[in-house]
Amino acid sequence: MSATPVANAQVDDPRTLRRVITASSVGTLIEWYDFYLFGALATIIGREFFPPGNEVVGFLSALATFAVGFLVRPFGALVFGRLGDIVGRKHTFLVTLSLMGISTVLIGLVPTYAQIGVIAPTLLVLLRALQGLALGGEYGGAATYVAEHSPPNQRGFYTSFIQTTATLGLFVSLLVLLSTERILGKEAFDGGGWRIPFLLSAVLLIVSITIRLKMSESPLFAKLKSEGTTSTNPLRESFVNPENRRLVLLALFGATAGQGVIWYTGQFYAMSFMEKILKLPRDGVWMTVGAALLLATPLFIVFGRLSDRIGRKKVMLTGMGLAILLYLPLFHLMTIAGANSEQPQWVLLGALVFIQVVFVTMVYGPVAAFLVELFPTRIRYTSMSLPYHIGNGVFGGLVPLISSAVVANTGNKLSGLFYPLAIATMTFLIALKYLPETAGQLHGDEH
Fold first, then answer.
1. Which of 68, 189, 348, 387 supports an S-S bond with 252, CB 3.0-4.6 Å?
2. What is the pTM of this model?
3. Closest CA to 71 of 137, 139, 129
4. Are 92 and 212 contacting, i.e. CB atoms less than 8 angstroms apart?
5. Is residue 440 part of a domain?
6. How far apart are CA 319 and CA 324, in angstroms?
7. Residue pLDDT, tens place only, 135-193
8. 264: domain range?
């Protein structure tokens, strides 16, 4: 049997698609869970792993360490993207999953600053960097793998399940943290119980690897490999070739940079804004954000499917435009709703966060399909991973640190929005003029 019929049979088989989506999504969700535990615990980590004496400096130091994971994600994209385009999608994200799980468990075992001094934050930064490298290789592989199994007219719908995992990973991390704190009590949780969610990653890692070992290779990549036409130097093809380099830059500045700041503003910065700037109780903030995430998550699939019908560009630009117009009034209303820290208006705060997460679902739901369709199969893993992780890891991942630092320096509670608004506006204008519509196409491939 030739390679091509096998590939087509896999793409058209609904049972195969369900297995592909389940295996890819479970692993990616666990990686996001691991990655975001750190951010949700920034306050505790700042206190435990950095020199005592200044709570604000400790918190910003923890956010800076959190940001390290984002800054190294593009390097992970280069390393594992190249591996994925040469060796294959399946084996590459088995490696990234293992690296993420082991790093997360080790974070839960690192002694505090009081126990080992400056070695504690040093180890923390190292493990955070390993997490970032792993995530840099994971997402591109999962999105590519699902898209290369999907029918062209449903690619937005099927890849949107991968898109839910980032928000669900944050939700699951908050749920596990909240449950652990409720079971142990706040004092025991702060005293060391916060390590338990990190250690649980060992169990999740075993489950996910077991599922992923049963996966087969992507049919489009398997076809290239059987024909001997895989790329021998995907880094060179992706970034030296003028045509592809232009697409990489367009994907970054016309899509993922704005998408990244909207994702981290509407979910992560909204959470730290309530906890650190409005001084609201931590458990209330976790529950409020968690409820908003859970209610909004199905909209990733709604907007992914919609992008199959009306186009990726229209959906993403609408979400980005709404965020640009409404962030300032939404966060202003949050300051009013949280003005009384003893009796905050939790329902209103939850509704305001929910609206922001809706914007996230509009820009993020279709972006995996858009990136996959923009680049050819032989260098797709590498080409899409780098702009995605610079946009999300650098532009987006730095939102909590930059925005919190701006507020700390200016004293203006809303000044932290200037950075994400500037990046989102730049991306919106570039996308409006230059971004192509990719729905239903695969650049450089014949079908």
1. 387
2. 0.80
3. 129
4. no
5. no
6. 9
7. 777 777 777 778 777 888 888 898 898 888 878 888 888 889 889 999 999 899 988 99
8. 3-434
